[in-house]
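call fold target=Integral membrane protein
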Amino acid sequence: MLWKVLRMVIGLLCGYLFVISLSAIIPFHSEEVLSEFILNPVEFLAGAVALVFGMYAIGGLIRDGGVAVISAYQGNKNLVPDIILAITCLGSFFLLSPLGAWQTAVFFVFCLLYGMMSFSSPEDTNES
C-alpha cells in the first residue's frame, strides 16, 4: 500500500512538472508551439519524460482501482483501499487544473488511456 501511495505522489509530481513545462505555450498557435519546442528542447524533453512517468504511475493506479471495483462487485471486500486510492488519484487532477487546464486534461486523458489499455479482469490474471 505504501508503494501505491508513493506512486500517486510520483504521478502528481510528474503531472506538475508536465504542466509547468508546457505552461509557456499559453497562446496555442502552431507556429509558436513549434518554435517553442525547437528553441527549448530540454524543457520539452523534460515535459515528455514527466508525462511518460506520470502516465505509468497514475495509469497503473487507475487500472488497480478498476480491477478492485470489479473484484468488489464479485464479493471481494478487502480491496477498498485500492478503490479509495484510485478515486483520490482522479481527484488529484483537480489540484493540477488551476496551473493549466488543457495541460491537465491532456495528462488526464493519457493516464486514463494507459490505465484502460493495461486493464485486465481478475479472471484473466488467474489463467496461465
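return ok
The two ends are 26 Å apart (CA to CA). The chain has a mean pLDDT of 82.
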